[in-house]
Each structure stands twice: as C-alpha cells, then as structure tokens.
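USER: Please consider what follows.
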Amino acid sequence: MPLPRHALPEPEVLAGLPPVREIPAAEVAARIRSAPRLVVLDDDPTGTQTVKDIPVLTTWTVDDLRWALRQNSTAFFILTNTRSLAPDDAATRNREIVRALHEASQAEGVPYAIASRGDSTLRGHFPLETDVLAEELTAQGAPTPDGVVLVPAYIEAGRLTVDSTHWMRTADGLLPVGESEFARDATFGYRSSRLPDWIEEKTQGRTPADKVLRITLTDLRVEGPSHVAALLSTLRDGAPAVVDAVRDDDLRVLALALAEAEENGAHLLYRVGPSFVRARSGQSAHPPLTPAELRPLRGDAPHGLIVVGSHVSLTTRQLNRLRDRHHDLTEYELDVAQLLDDTRRDAHIHELASAAAAALETSDAVIRTTRTLVTGTDPGTSLAISRSVSAALVEAVRLVNAARRPAFVIAKGGITSSDTATHGLEIRRAWARGTLLPGIVSLWQPVDGPAAGIPYVVFAGNVGGDDALADALALLRSAA
C-alpha cells in the first residue's frame, strides 16, 4: 500500500545521519555518582516505563520525599498527574511539590535536579509547568534556572527527534508528530512538528523559534559531550534548548554533557519524555520481567483486574485483540451517559463493581468505559468530562479491591493509571520494578496501603502494537 502523504519510510528519515557515538550506561552511572538526585515530576504515571528498580511516590509530603531521598537510587518519580488538571491546579501542584522537595532536600542533605516529564507526543502543560517550577525554585532560594532542556524522545515507542523535528513511528512509516491524532488532542492540541516552531506556538510567540538552541545529532555524535556542555552553558534567563535523539546512546551523550555543564555552574530544568530518565539515571535498557521474576510479585488471588480508560484508537484495537486471544475474560462497561447523570451515576458504579468483584472468583475481569469519546464544547469542559469518567473508574476499582483483592491490576491510559494508583488502590510509595513489554509497560510493586502485594501495571494509551495488551495479560498469567 502507498504511504500516507506525510508519513515517510523510516530509513529515509534516518538516512545520512552521523555514526552513533556509543556510550555505555556504566559510564553515565559513574559520572553521575556525585550528581544531584534526579527528581522526575511525572504528569501521568507512564514515565516509569523505561526504568527498573526506581522509587515512585504518588504523594509529596515532606516525609514521603525524605523516604525517597534516602533510597539507594539515582532518581525517583513523583506522580503529579497534572496532565489531568486545569492549568491553575497544575501550577499549584507544581509549587507545592517544589516547596516540600526543597525542605526534604535540606533535611536529608541531598541535592536534587528536576525533570518535568511530559508526553512523548508533546501533550501536557508546557510551558506552564517549567515556568512555574523556575519561579518556585527561585522563591525557595535555589538558583534560577538558566535554561530548559526539551528532550521528548521515547526510543522504544518510536518517538524520535531528527534535525529538531519530532517524529512518531506508525505502521505506515514515520509521521511528523504534529500530523498525528495526538496533535488533535481536545485539551493540548498543536500544529508544529519542528520543536523550535512548537515552542513558539506553545509560548504564543514569547519565545521565537529562532531563539531556541538546537542540539543536533551532529553535536551529539560528532562533537561529543564537552561540545554539547559548552552549548548548554550558553543558555540564559530560562531559554529553551531542544535535543535530537534516535538511540539511547544519544541521550547518554546528553547526560554526560549535562553533568559537565552543571558542574561548571549551569542551572538547568528538564522537560522530557520517558527515555531521558533512563539515560540520566545511568541505566541501560532492561529486558522485560520474566515469569520467574514476576512470580514472587504476583498476588495470591487467582485472577486479575484490567481497567481501560484510554480512548485513542490504538487502545480500542488492543482491547479488541485482547478479546480475540483471551476468550475467558468477563467484561463490564461503565456507560459514560450514566456517569454524567447525577441521578444514575452512583448506582451504576456500585452495580458494576459488585459484578466485577464476583467475577474475579472465576476469571480475569475487564472494566472499561464506553468506547465513544464524549467531549465538551471547549478544552476545559472536555478535561472535566475526562476527570469525571476517570473518577468513576477509580471508584469502581476501589470497591472491587475492597470486596475481593485481585492478583494484579492493569490500568490502560495515562489519567486512568494515575487515578487508579492514587485513589483506587491508595498507593503512596512503590518501586517501579521493570516492564512487561520492552520499554513500554511498567510494573510497580506497592509497598504500603491496601494495594501492598498487588502488582500494578501502568500501560499508556498510546504505546505498543495491537497485541500488546493481550501479551501483557499472557505474561502475568504465566506467573501464576
């Protein structure tokens, strides 16, 4: 079949690139041994999908932050869920976290660097979040950031940046991300695929495209870390830089450059996709967890719960394939029309949760929302509807877990995963133990609350092939 007009064969996009500068993860790990702890403010929980054995917090009390800072880890995540919030609420949450983090850092004597983790398809509160973080760091007496380093790449999922243009891998080739369905997002939509233009668009002209520092694959692969560090050291007054990446090695060059620039006095904020976190943490890509590794993590109950909230077309295809391959599932639908009707909402949730809990005695159960996406007349109304539906899913999960603990929980969708973790299962502290599929589906081990002992699987709505959800379930079943 011919390619769609704007998709290009991947070899064509990657043709003529400089040879990769190979950097082992161990070199980065050694370099950052004395570097500030990387604190990843994750605007939904799916940023953990590239790392292994990293702490995760869903709350940000000073005590929780001090616990995370005491762990033997080069980084930790704070699940902010700000992508599901209105702008003012997202700003408030970022300010709260910086204040608590600064207090915890001083109490523990552990310095920190902040990465604001956004979506690899460029959705989220940008530049709001990095603006607020810079303001609050200054207010707390920390150095004012000289620059914001934008690195949206997500290598495993095929979100690549070449010559400052961001691409996403599809079945038809590499597509400029501004032409994808994600760019039509009702709340965070945009037009530009070239990152300097995207920054100009999102800042409404405050930062012109020609004022954005571009760090290309030539800088990373040919010139190397010291050259890139010198470029980063030119940033002033919160100016942005955008960074190419096609391989983990590109990001590890960047990690070495950041360490050098920061040792030489640069103060930087990061706005990143998932892959940067692994590189900056000094980790290499890990293979998926094996049944033997999963077995001690898996709960004692016979069957698990799958919660599906994402509405992107990929999720719908994955759900269809899940049914095709696993015929013994029991499935329940949360009807959005009833959820938006105050007179029917509570009864509908309770009836469904009761049926799903009973089904766990004999089968794995799926709770999903109506597959037709309901939107409002403007971005704020659309976000409010999404929050209302997510809250219903969360309440259903809470009721199911209270009645019958599942062997595992899979949550499909960014907002769904976040709300299920924090409210449905009341997870406060956990460890991201690895992935079920290569670099795209994270498994958490909760260490407190009613979900302790229940593996929690974070599955973004926009990643994986059509069989990915069915594959994840098959792997969990194999560990029984």
Q: What stands out?
A: The chain has a mean pLDDT of 93. The longest strand covers residues 429-437.
